[in-house]
Structures are given as C-alpha cells and as structure tokens.
Design a protein that fits this description.
With 312 residues, this protein is α/β, with parallel strands linked by helices. The protein has three domains: 1-104 and 203-224, 3-Layer(aba) Sandwich (D-Maltodextrin-Binding Protein, domain 2); 110-190, Periplasmic binding protein-like II (D-Maltodextrin-Binding Protein, domain 2); 225-312, 2-Layer Sandwich (Double Stranded RNA Binding Domain), CATH 3.30.160. It has helices at residues 16-33, 48-51, 68-76, 134-143, 156-164, 175-180, 214-220, 226-241, 287-302, 306-310, and strands at 8-12, 40-44, 81-85, 97-102, 110-113, 128-130, 148-150, 170-174, 189-190, 205-210, 250-257, 260-268, 275-281. The strands form three sheets. A five-stranded mixed beta sheet has the order 2-1-3-10-4, sandwiched between helices. Strands 7-6-8-5-9 form a five-stranded mixed beta sheet, with helices on both faces. A hairpin with a 2-residue loop joins strand 11 and strand 12 (260-268). Helix 8 runs parallel beside helix 9. The ligand NCc1[nH]cc(CCC(=O)O)c1CC(=O)O binds at residues 85, 87-88, 156, 173-174, 176-177, 202-203. This is Porphobilinogen deaminase. Belongs to the HMBS family. The modification S-(dipyrrolylmethanemethyl)cysteine is found at residue 246. Pfam families: Porphobil_deam, Porphobil_deamC.
Length: 312
C-alpha cells in the first residue's frame, strides 16, 4: 500500500534547538488541521553555519549563513516551509521568498549561565566570559569592563560542555532556546532586558515560504501571533536601516509602556564604552515603518562615523 503524500514538508537545521522548533511547528500544524503528525515531514538540512563552527559569525558576514541552504531547498520545491530562529535571519530575504508568520514569542531575555557563580556581579575580577556574540560581549564589558571575553561558538549543548571544561567561567544564552530544549534548570540568573537589550527578533520562530505558494500560505497563516509579528517586523526593519549584519552590537526590546507598544534600540561600541539609544512607538499596522524610523534615529545619533566606532 502506498503511503499518502506529505501534507507539508518542513526544512530545518539539524541542531537540537532547530529540531525542537520544527517539532513545535509540526505539532501546532497537526492539531490545527487535524492531520496526523507523520504526514508532516521534518527534513534536516545542514547549513554553512553548522559547518564553520570555529570562526566567529561576525568574521564572515553571519546571518544568512544559517538559512541559505534551507532557502535553496525552498526555491527548488524540495520543502514547503523553513522554520527558523528569526534572529539568525538576514534582514533581506532572497527574491521569491517571504517570512510572514511568527509563532508566539518565547522569553526574549538572555540568561546568565555558570557552574560556579550566581550572577554577573559575583564573577571574580578578570574572569573569562565565553561569548562569540559581539552584542553580548559589548553589553558584558559595559557592565564588567574587567572581564576577559573568550570566543564561544557551537550549539547550546556545545557551549554548556565548554563551560564544564573550564573554557570560560560563565556565558549568556537566549532563555528562549533553553526553555525550548527543556534546559531552563541551567539558568542561574535572568538578565534585565531593559539593560541587556536582547538581539533583534530573539525568541521568535519565523516561518518562511515561497511567495507564490498560496496553499502553504493558507496552511501556516493561522499560526501567526500578531503581537509577535508586529514586534519582530519592527525590530528587523530597525536592524535593516543599520545594516546590522553580525558586525555591529545592536540590541532591541519591544515592550508595552502602558497602552503603547514601544521599540527601544541601542548601539554599543564593542568595548562597551559608548551606548547610543533610540526609541519610538509601534503602531498596529505601521510596525515596519515605525521600526525603520527608530533605526534612522539611532543612525543619526551615532553620527557619520558610526561604522568606524561600532563596527571596527
Ligand atoms: N545564534 C544562535 C541562536 N539563534 C537563536 C537562538 C535562541 C532562540 C531564539 O532566540 O529564538 C540561539 C542561541 C542563543 O543565542 O543562545
């Protein structure tokens, strides 16, 4: 007997976090459409970012590197959707592809992880802090200029193993990833997101598909969480103005101030000494334009030398 064709084919990276996100998406789609989970195929795809594990992402233009092969599979019709951590996505998608759907955001905050220390303040003078994120490095140095930053790449499991090996005494990870992996017990302290602004789009799973694939668009549209989409579109539009590849430490936080949804964004110099902030309200249907306005404000305040100061 021939098995029925898949209802939908999901492309994902093969890391445990990426697979957890793909499974979460499959479970939602399965429940929503009353389709057996085994009719939704999960197809792991190895990406350039998975292979180049020793080089900081900022050294080779970051972002798109985690999605290029998945986007090629979409364009070739091998898969119907790509399920991504939206914070890893380039701000401009390849022609013919769209990312219109965002699942409800997880916790946006970064989490402090250490075997021997309870929080950032209690780290000993000069301690080794592991991170390859230039945003996290800049924010850490701003709070603790005495710490020494050491490169720390690899997936969540690899980074936790490196802590165990003593490569560094502490690190920061996105709480969202740890929650999705059911590893929140590793978290020693949640950072205040108003001080340690998360990466733009952190904590939000995005669904990408071909712009002309209307069947798939109809299947995934109900998964969209409007408030998440509003925030993530604004944060990505802000980032696009600054062309924040992976070379510029940029943080963003979308938060309610009373009845008003606000985007707060910051540029931090890599040594943590200079911080420039901007913020603005996000309208319900104008999030993209409003986010871009915050980006332009930030760029203006940083001045003409901003590339030299913030992305040396
Ligand atoms: N750059 C890797 C990456 N991309 C997305 C997440 C976490 C999940 C998310 O932000 O949705 C992580 C790990 C981390 O930063 O700790």
């Amino acid at each position: 007997m021939q098995s029925p064709p898949p209802f939908l084919r999901i492309g994902t990276r093969g890391s445990p976090l990426a697979l957890a996100q793909a499974h979460q998406t499959r479970d939602r789609l399965s429940a929503l459409h009353g389709v057996e989970p085994d009719r939704i195929a999960i197809i792991p795809i190895s990406t350039g970012g998975d292979r180049l594990t020793d080089v900081p992402l900022s050294a080779f233009g970051g972002k798109g590197l985690f999605s290029r092969e998945i986007e090629a599979a979409l364009a070739e019709g091998i898969i119907d959707i790509g399920v991504h951590s939206s914070k890893d996505m380039a701000t401009t998608l390849p022609p013919g592809l769209v990312m219109p759907v965002f699942l409800e955001r997880e916790d946006v905050r970064d989490a402090f992880i250490s075997l021997g220390h309870a929080n950032l303040e209690s780290l000993p003078e000069g301690a080794l802090f592991g991170t390859s994120s230039i945003r996290r490095a800049a924010q850490i140095l701003r709070a603790r200029p005495d710490l020494a930053i050491v490169p720390f790449r690899g997936n969540v499991q690899t980074r936790l193993r490196k802590l165990g090996e003593g490569v560094a005494e502490a690190t920061l990870l996105a709480g969202a990833g740890l929650n999705r992996l059911d590893m929140a017990d590793r978290i020693r302290h949640w950072l205040d997101p108003e001080i340690f602004l998360p990466a733009p789009a952190q904590g939000a799973i995005g669904i990408e598909h071909r712009a002309d694939d209307h069947r798939t668009a109809d299947i995934v549209a109900p998964l969209n969480h409007p408030e998440t989409a509003r925030a993530v579109k604004a944060e990505r539009a802000m980032l696009q103005i600054l062309d924040g590849s992976c070379r510029t430490p940029i943080g963003a936080l979308t938060t309610w101030r009373g009845p008003q949804l606000m985007l707060v964004a910051e540029l931090v110099s890599p040594d943590g000494r200079i911080t420039i902030k901007a913020e603005g309200p996000l309208g319900e249907d104008t999030a993209q334009a409003d986010g871009a306005a915050v980006g332009r404000m930030l760029k203006d305040r940083a001045g003409p030398d901003f590339v030299k100061v913030f992305s040396p």
